[in-house]
Amino acid sequence: MEADYSITDRLATRLKETRKSKGLSLEAMAKLSGVSRSMLSQIERGQSSPTVATLWSLTQALQVDFAGLLDDDSGAGTIREIMRANRTPTIDSQGEGCRIRILSPPGQAGQLEVYDIRFTSGASLISEPHRQGCHEDLTVLEGALEVTSGDESAQLAEGDTLRYAADCTHAIRAVGAPARALLIVHNS
Questions:
Q1: Domains, in order of start, for the chain
Q2: In 82, 90, 134, 152, which residue has its Cα 20 to 30 A from 114's Cα atom?
Q3: Can you tell me the distance from the alpha carbon of 106 to that of 149, in angstroms, rounded to the nearest whole number?
Protein backbone atom coordinates (compact mmCIF):
# COMPACT_ATOMS: atom_id res chain seq x y z
CA MET A 1 0.00 0.00 0.00
CA GLU A 2 1.41 3.39 -1.01
CA ALA A 3 1.91 5.98 1.74
CA ASP A 4 -0.50 8.92 1.88
CA TYR A 5 1.31 12.02 0.67
CA SER A 6 -1.56 14.46 1.15
CA ILE A 7 -0.29 17.87 2.14
CA THR A 8 -2.84 18.08 4.96
CA ASP A 9 -1.61 14.86 6.58
CA ARG A 10 2.07 15.71 6.16
CA LEU A 11 1.54 19.23 7.45
CA ALA A 12 -0.44 17.96 10.46
CA THR A 13 2.37 15.62 11.49
CA ARG A 14 5.23 18.05 10.85
CA LEU A 15 3.51 21.01 12.49
CA LYS A 16 2.91 19.04 15.69
CA GLU A 17 6.49 17.63 15.68
CA THR A 18 8.01 21.08 15.10
CA ARG A 19 5.85 22.75 17.76
CA LYS A 20 6.73 20.07 20.33
CA SER A 21 10.45 20.13 19.42
CA LYS A 22 10.44 23.84 20.32
CA GLY A 23 8.73 23.09 23.63
CA LEU A 24 5.56 24.98 22.75
CA SER A 25 2.08 24.10 23.99
CA LEU A 26 -0.94 24.67 21.74
CA GLU A 27 -1.76 27.72 23.86
CA ALA A 28 1.75 29.19 23.50
CA MET A 29 1.73 28.51 19.75
CA ALA A 30 -1.65 30.23 19.45
CA LYS A 31 -0.30 33.33 21.20
CA LEU A 32 2.85 33.42 19.04
CA SER A 33 1.09 32.89 15.72
CA GLY A 34 -2.24 34.63 16.24
CA VAL A 35 -3.97 31.42 15.08
CA SER A 36 -6.62 30.17 17.51
CA ARG A 37 -5.87 27.16 19.69
CA SER A 38 -8.87 25.29 18.28
CA MET A 39 -7.73 25.90 14.67
CA LEU A 40 -4.19 24.75 15.54
CA SER A 41 -5.61 21.59 17.08
CA GLN A 42 -7.75 20.92 13.98
CA ILE A 43 -4.76 21.44 11.66
CA GLU A 44 -2.55 19.14 13.77
CA ARG A 45 -5.23 16.43 13.68
CA GLY A 46 -5.55 16.78 9.88
CA GLN A 47 -9.17 17.92 10.22
CA SER A 48 -8.61 21.35 8.68
CA SER A 49 -6.56 22.62 5.77
CA PRO A 50 -5.02 26.01 6.62
CA THR A 51 -5.09 29.02 4.33
CA VAL A 52 -1.82 30.38 2.95
CA ALA A 53 -2.09 33.30 5.41
CA THR A 54 -2.46 30.87 8.34
CA LEU A 55 0.53 28.82 7.14
CA TRP A 56 2.56 32.01 6.89
CA SER A 57 1.67 32.93 10.50
CA LEU A 58 2.60 29.45 11.73
CA THR A 59 5.96 29.33 9.94
CA GLN A 60 6.84 32.79 11.25
CA ALA A 61 5.94 31.79 14.82
CA LEU A 62 7.97 28.57 14.57
CA GLN A 63 10.82 30.34 12.73
CA VAL A 64 10.93 27.68 10.01
CA ASP A 65 10.72 27.85 6.24
CA PHE A 66 7.41 26.81 4.78
CA ALA A 67 8.97 23.94 2.84
CA GLY A 68 10.58 22.73 6.07
CA LEU A 69 7.14 21.81 7.39
CA LEU A 70 6.56 19.69 4.29
CA ASP A 71 9.97 18.08 4.01
CA ASP A 72 9.79 14.36 3.30
CA ASP A 73 13.07 12.64 4.16
CA SER A 74 12.15 9.41 2.34
CA GLY A 75 14.43 10.26 -0.60
CA ALA A 76 17.47 11.27 1.48
CA GLY A 77 20.76 10.13 -0.04
CA THR A 78 19.48 9.81 -3.60
CA ILE A 79 21.06 11.64 -6.51
CA ARG A 80 17.96 12.00 -8.65
CA GLU A 81 14.30 12.19 -7.86
CA ILE A 82 11.16 11.75 -9.88
CA MET A 83 8.33 13.73 -8.36
CA ARG A 84 5.19 11.90 -9.47
CA ALA A 85 2.13 14.11 -9.86
CA ASN A 86 0.23 12.26 -7.14
CA ARG A 87 3.12 12.72 -4.68
CA THR A 88 3.91 16.38 -5.33
CA PRO A 89 3.21 18.44 -2.20
CA THR A 90 0.08 20.49 -2.84
CA ILE A 91 -1.73 23.16 -0.89
CA ASP A 92 -5.41 23.62 -1.59
CA SER A 93 -6.10 27.10 -0.35
CA GLN A 94 -9.89 26.97 -0.26
CA GLY A 95 -10.40 30.50 1.06
CA GLU A 96 -8.26 32.01 -1.68
CA GLY A 97 -9.38 29.68 -4.51
CA CYS A 98 -5.82 28.59 -5.31
CA ARG A 99 -4.10 25.25 -5.64
CA ILE A 100 -0.34 25.46 -5.14
CA ARG A 101 1.99 22.62 -6.18
CA ILE A 102 5.47 22.82 -4.65
CA LEU A 103 7.93 21.82 -7.37
CA SER A 104 11.25 22.70 -5.70
CA PRO A 105 13.00 20.38 -3.24
CA PRO A 106 12.58 21.28 0.45
CA GLY A 107 16.32 22.00 0.77
CA GLN A 108 15.91 24.93 -1.61
CA ALA A 109 13.48 26.78 0.70
CA GLY A 110 14.63 30.33 1.26
CA GLN A 111 16.98 30.16 -1.74
CA LEU A 112 15.06 29.14 -4.85
CA GLU A 113 11.44 28.03 -4.63
CA VAL A 114 9.30 26.92 -7.59
CA TYR A 115 5.50 26.71 -7.55
CA ASP A 116 2.79 25.76 -10.06
CA ILE A 117 -0.31 27.74 -9.06
CA ARG A 118 -3.86 27.24 -10.37
CA PHE A 119 -6.44 29.95 -9.70
CA THR A 120 -10.21 29.65 -9.90
CA SER A 121 -11.98 32.54 -11.62
CA GLY A 122 -11.36 35.75 -9.65
CA ALA A 123 -9.20 33.99 -7.03
CA SER A 124 -6.39 35.87 -5.28
CA LEU A 125 -3.18 34.90 -3.56
CA ILE A 126 -2.13 37.69 -1.18
CA SER A 127 1.33 37.51 0.40
CA GLU A 128 2.97 39.41 3.21
CA PRO A 129 6.52 40.68 2.55
CA HIS A 130 9.16 37.96 2.26
CA ARG A 131 12.77 38.38 3.40
CA GLN A 132 14.68 41.51 2.32
CA GLY A 133 15.86 41.35 -1.31
CA CYS A 134 13.41 38.59 -2.28
CA HIS A 135 12.01 38.66 -5.83
CA GLU A 136 9.45 36.63 -7.72
CA ASP A 137 9.34 35.72 -11.41
CA LEU A 138 5.85 34.79 -12.56
CA THR A 139 4.98 33.32 -15.96
CA VAL A 140 1.32 32.99 -16.95
CA LEU A 141 0.73 29.52 -18.40
CA GLU A 142 -3.05 29.84 -18.86
CA GLY A 143 -5.55 32.69 -18.57
CA ALA A 144 -4.79 36.21 -17.38
CA LEU A 145 -3.45 37.51 -14.07
CA GLU A 146 -3.05 40.84 -12.34
CA VAL A 147 0.01 41.17 -10.09
CA THR A 148 0.41 43.89 -7.49
CA SER A 149 3.75 44.52 -5.80
CA GLY A 150 3.78 47.40 -3.35
CA ASP A 151 1.89 50.25 -5.04
CA GLU A 152 2.33 49.02 -8.63
CA SER A 153 0.15 46.63 -10.65
CA ALA A 154 0.55 44.87 -14.00
CA GLN A 155 -1.87 42.91 -16.18
CA LEU A 156 -0.45 39.73 -17.68
CA ALA A 157 -1.75 37.53 -20.48
CA GLU A 158 -0.88 33.93 -21.31
CA GLY A 159 2.87 33.62 -22.02
CA ASP A 160 3.81 36.89 -20.25
CA THR A 161 6.46 36.94 -17.53
CA LEU A 162 6.76 39.53 -14.76
CA ARG A 163 9.66 40.00 -12.35
CA TYR A 164 8.82 41.94 -9.20
CA ALA A 165 9.85 42.64 -5.62
CA ALA A 166 8.45 40.23 -3.03
CA ASP A 167 9.92 41.95 0.03
CA CYS A 168 6.78 44.09 0.16
CA THR A 169 3.11 43.13 0.27
CA HIS A 170 2.19 41.54 -3.07
CA ALA A 171 -0.76 39.76 -4.64
CA ILE A 172 -1.68 37.69 -7.69
CA ARG A 173 -5.30 37.66 -8.93
CA ALA A 174 -6.99 35.72 -11.73
CA VAL A 175 -8.69 38.13 -14.11
CA GLY A 176 -11.97 36.72 -15.41
CA ALA A 177 -11.45 33.04 -16.16
CA PRO A 178 -9.40 30.47 -14.22
CA ALA A 179 -5.65 30.85 -14.65
CA ARG A 180 -2.39 29.00 -14.07
CA ALA A 181 1.13 30.32 -13.44
CA LEU A 182 4.66 29.19 -12.76
CA LEU A 183 6.16 31.15 -9.85
CA ILE A 184 9.85 31.27 -8.98
CA VAL A 185 10.82 32.86 -5.65
CA HIS A 186 14.48 33.83 -5.15
CA ASN A 187 16.89 36.20 -3.45
CA SER A 188 18.59 38.79 -5.62
A1: 7-70 (1.10.260.40), 110-187 (2.60.120.10)
A2: 152
A3: 26
